[in-house]
Write a structure and sequence with these properties.
By secondary structure, the protein is mostly helical. Helix content is about 70%, strand content about 0%.
Amino acid sequence: MSEPVSDATPDPSPDLASEVPSDDSGAARRRRRAQFLRELNEAKALRERVKPRQARAARMRQQMRMRTFRW
């Protein structure tokens, strides 16, 4: 008789316990999100200074998308 063939991927269940959110991970997530948003705004400001014409065109496209959006 032959031995049963096991799957190539390991069982993901042991990793799920580390991904369960807790109260302190929520605070960490909010800190990471705030940091990300700060960096995003900084990158947008830099893009505005470096490429003003493309940044203005991007703003106009965004405004047009917002105007034509239907609720």
